[in-house]
Write a structure and sequence with these properties.
The chain is of the alpha/beta class. It is 44% helix and 12% strand. The chain has helices at residues 11-14, 21-36, 63-73, 85-96, 113-126, 143-154, 173-181, 201-210, 235-248, 272-279, 283-286, 317-328, 335-345, 355-382, 405-414, 418-430, 457-478, and strands at residues 47-48, 137-140, 163-169, 185-190, 216-223, 251-255, 289-294, 308-313, 386-387, 396-397, 400-401, 432-433, 435-436, 449-452. The chain has a seven-stranded mixed beta sheet with strand order 2-8-7-6-5-3-4, sandwiched between helices. Strands 10-14-13 form a three-stranded antiparallel beta sheet, covered by helices on one side. A two-stranded parallel ribbon has the order 1-12.
């Protein structure tokens, strides 16, 4: 008889809800195996646009990035004429900053000092000259990793009432899981779908009021550009948020990993740090802020290399010491990821040998993304039972699905959330994997799906073709 230790597992971990993805992923694997065995389906291969993974979606890796990484992994290439001279120079410089001249060595906890400095310089350029101190920057194994570390510092498990974090709905699910796993409460605030998923400060006040007697909110989490909603905040909206956190004495957590993906005509990415700085004292000197960016979500889309950075603003030096101690428990971020982050933030410049190809490849990605956005919104809004708000940024489409009552009843009988059941049908009948809105949060009585637009144009067309065929048949069946 096996010994069960479930009762001994941290209750906060037990409170974490399993992802709906596990239901879909299990069936996805089964269908792939059935196709390999020759089982007849209406499709010959599966299309997975569940996650924001550009390379999985057919976007080609950037040549400059892969060439430098290759030379860092196999230093003999540094002396090879097969690689452009600027690639070899960059690889040689980066290797000289690695102990033993090898990417297999550990680095300082914050990251390779020169790369941390170059991150700081990037932030200053991006923010129009607002200074960035390298001492406030930490490289990490992805943005969600560093976010969970900060949440760990903010959420006191012995607090009574429990601590809380104001978090947007909809929102990618990993943050809510981290908050719950650390013993804090998620305090939802709802983005306004009717207003293009706008963040409204009145809703923040409502959410904070709802927490009274339940938990003690210590932080506000914002995602800009939004995931999964694609909204890009205006300066005015960000200023309102900053005044709100200042008034309510909340720590501001700004997830800005999709900052390279802004395509709305009147949209512009502004970092929270820049807006805070330009508001001036006393706010610029007092509001505590952590902002996050990632090598996974820039144009190069190197998700598997798992590196991002966090910048802290206005934290007490005594607190910063504890943050450094907390980060040091994991030694350092992956070294190849640190190098990729450096390449993302400091790409080839005009006049350098690699620039023409790099420029062409990145422009192709931008043009493809712009085309995918236009096509996805057009097609989705042309289909009965689907409605999508205009997309301003981010990597996903998050349309509302109007599900007939008879279908909702069928879902309940199957023991599934209605939009999860819809996604199961879409997977089974069209070979298309998308995410159910339930996983990201939504107003009661509404249903959504999420799918990634960071794909090649060919894959996006096939995604939209399959979705169109399925939805038309679906509406016929349940009309």
């Amino acid at each position: 008889m096996k010994m069960s230790v479930l009762q001994e597992i941290n209750q906060n971990v037990r409170n974490m809800k399993p992802l709906e993805y596990s239901i879909l992923a299990g069936r996805l694997s089964q269908i792939k195996e059935e196709l390999r065995q020759g089982v007849k389906k209406p499709y010959q291969e599966m299309l997975d646009v569940y996650m924001g993974d550009p390379h999985k979606g057919g976007v080609k890796p950037l040549s400059f990035v892969r060439q430098v990484l290759a030379a860092c992994l196999y230093p003999e290439l540094v002396n090879s004429s097969k690689l452009p001279v600027d690639v070899r120079q960059r690889a040689q410089r980066l290797l000289s900053r690695c102990d033993g001249g090898s990417v297999g060595s550990y680095t300082a906890t914050r990251g390779i000092p020169e790369i941390v400095l170059r991150v700081s310089e990037f932030i200053t350029r991006r923010d129009g000259g607002v200074p960035s101190n390298p001492e406030n920057i930490f490289l990490s194994p992805g943005s969600q990793w560093s976010l969970s570390k900060i949440l760990n510092a903010l959420a006191n498990p012995e607090s009574s009432p429990r601590n809380g974090v104001l978090s947007p709905v909809p929102c990618h699910n990993t943050t809510a899981m981290s908050v719950t796993g650390l013993g804090a409460d998620v305090v939802p605030y709802y983005l306004s779908e009717e207003q293009g998923w706008e963040l409204q400060v009145e809703e923040l006040h409502r959410a904070l009021e709802s927490a009274k007697g339940v938990c003690n909110p210590v932080a506000l989490y914002v995602v800009n550009p939004g995931n999964p909603d694609g909204h890009v905040q205006s300066r005015k909206s960000m200023q309102e948020v900053i005044r709100f956190v200042s008034e309510k004495r909340l720590f501001l957590l700004a997830d800005e990993v999709y900052q390279d993906y802004v395509f709305g005509e009147n949209s512009e990415f502004l970092s929270y740090k820049r807006v805070l700085s330009e508001m001036g004292p006393p706010l610029s000197d007092t509001v505590e802020l952590a902002s996050f960016h990632s090598a996974s979500k820039g144009l190069m889309g190197e998700c598997g290399l798992r590196t991002g950075y966090m910048e802290l603003v206005n934290l007490d030096p005594a607190v910063m010491k504890h943050i450094l101690t907390m980060f040091s428990t994991d030694t350092c971020a992956p070294v190849l990821g640190q190098i990729a982050l450096d390449l993302m933030l400091n790409p080839p410049q005009p006049g350098e040998p690699s620039y023409p190809l790099y420029h062409m490849e990145t422009q192709n990605i931008k043009n493809t993304l712009a085309g995918n956005v236009k096509r996805a919104v057009e097609v989705v809004n042309s289909l009965p039972g689907l409605c999508c708000q205009p997309l301003e940024g981010g990597a996903f489409v998050f349309p509302r699905v109007y599900l007939p009552p008879s279908f909702i009843q069928k879902a309940k009988k199957a023991g599934l959330e209605p939009d999860t059941f819809y996604c199961c049908r879409l997977l089974e009948e069209a070979g298309l994997l998308v995410g159910p809105g339930f996983e990201y949060g939504q107003k009661e009585g509404t249903y959504h799906i999420r799918f990634c637009i960071l794909t090649s144009a060919e894959i996006m067309e096939e995604v939209l073709r399959r979705l169109t065929c399925f939805q038309k048949q679906f509406m016929k069946e349940f009309s």
